[in-house]
UniProtKB/TrEMBL annotation:
SUPFAM superfamilies with a match to the protein in the record: Clavaminate synthase-like
Protein name: Alpha-ketoglutarate-dependent dioxygenase AlkB
Lineage, broadest ranks: Bacteria, Bacillati, Actinomycetota, Actinomycetes, Pseudonocardiales
Top-level taxon: Bacteria
InterPro entries: Alkb, AlkB-like, AlkB-like_sf, Oxoglu/Fe-dep_dioxygenase_dom
Keyword rRNA processing in record: no
Amino acid sequence: MPDWLDENAQRELVTACRDWASGPGRLRSARLPNGGVMSVRTVCLGWHWYPYRYSRHLDDGDGSPVLPFPGWLADLGRRAAGDALGVTRYEPDIALVNFYDEDARMGMHQDKDEASDEPVVSFSLGDPCVFRFGNTEHRNRPWTDVDLRSGDLFVFGGPSRFAYHGVPKTLPREEPLEIGLPEGRLNITLRVSGF
Ligand SMILES: O=C(O)CCC(=O)C(=O)O
Ligand SMILES: [Fe+2]
């Protein structure tokens, strides 16, 4: 859903992201089991994700408790899921906030560390990107490339909930944005843990 978040809502989300990301070690690149490090930097709310599980604590960091998942963000997620899918009940309790600098990417993957098949709600802020939405069988074609721009909402649920997806590249801004994010891209995904 293009432009689902107006400029004010985008600015408020950017401010919230800056607040969540501030503090030593909060925004970090997750380390993969193969020794690689993700190019995206992430801060989590509700449940802390690291490859490939969730914890209430930053087990791969300083062990501190994960930040709480705010009620207003659940309300926003519920409105988003309602507008996109027509559902009235949606109780997200996880947010993954990803920051992409101009070189960051995310490889094709499924969001499958949750114990729930409730939809994933995704908000994009800042630089546009190519979002690659694939199939549920494997990480290869067929897929659809969608440009996601600041303010866009993308929701995947039902038969698409476990589709492979990724971000092959971010793109330069087409126009200046007044949302308090001078460079880079933020993506916030809301999920239901089922835990
Ligand atoms: O940045 C995006 O648009 C997608 C992020 C994503 O797939 C994830 O956090 O699992
Ligand atoms: Fe994902």
